[in-house]
Specification:
The chain is an alpha+beta fold and 152 residues long. The chain folds into 2 domains: 19-57; 79-150, Signal recognition particle alu RNA binding heterodimer, srp9/1, CATH 3.30.720. Helix content is 38%, strand content 24%. The protein is built from 4 helices and 8 strands. The protein has helices at residues 21-40, 42-45, 50-57, 118-143, and strands spanning 7-10, 62-65, 69-72, 75-78, 82-88, 93-98, 103-107, 148-150. The strands form 2 sheets. It has a 4-stranded antiparallel β-sheet with strand order 1-2-3-4, covered by helices on one side. The protein has a 4-stranded mixed β-sheet with strand order 7-6-5-8, covered by helices on one side. A hairpin with a 2-residue loop joins strand 3 (69-72) and strand 4. The longest helix has 26 residues, at 118-143.
Length: 152
């Protein structure tokens, strides 16, 4: 059985960031090292507690698109259970409504960009939103035949 491939995109969702196994090991080992050093050399050793905190807070917030479902923080949307897709290009919002009543909202403004000029920022966010929303729409259409499409 081959492992599932996910397309990952940086996306500032409100859920806590998912920590990889390697990051969890690093945080645990650095926390243990900070405790040992702080116990041995108290005043300067207390600053080592910043290392695991920085590793915890700097974890990237990602949106993962798989072949059958998407993951965003603690939200899981199974494409075959989607009833309705609503795309508003002017507002930059894609609403994905599932059969269980769960609604996932993809927003254009939550995509980060490295640009500095406002026109470039808007252009980059719009391009990323169009790319990701297009992939979600295509995967939902492929998985579910009874999906209602609004604004698409």
């Amino acid at each position: 059985m081959t492992p599932t491939e996910f397309a990952s995109f940086k996306y500032h969702h409100i859920d806590p960031a998912g920590l990889s196994q390697a990051r969890r090991w690093f945080i645990g080992i650095s926390l243990l090292a900070a405790v040992v050093v702080a116990y041995s050399f108290f005043p300067p050793g207390i600053f080592l507690f910043a290392v695991p905190l920085i590793a915890w807070w700097s974890a990237p917030r990602l949106l993962h698109l798989g072949p059958r479902y998407l993951l965003c923080g603690k939200t899981i949307v199974y494409y075959a259970n989607v009833l309705c897709l609503t795309l508003s290009s002017s507002q930059g919002v894609l609403r994905v409504q599932s059969a269980n009543g769960q609604t996932f909202v993809l927003e254009r403004d939550k995509f980060p960009t490295g640009a500095r000029k406002t026109d470039k920022i808007a252009k980059n966010k719009a391009a990323k939103f169009d790319k990701v929303s297009g992939k979600i729409i295509a995967k939902v259409r492929q998985a579910s035949v009874n999906v209602k499409l609004n604004g698409i």
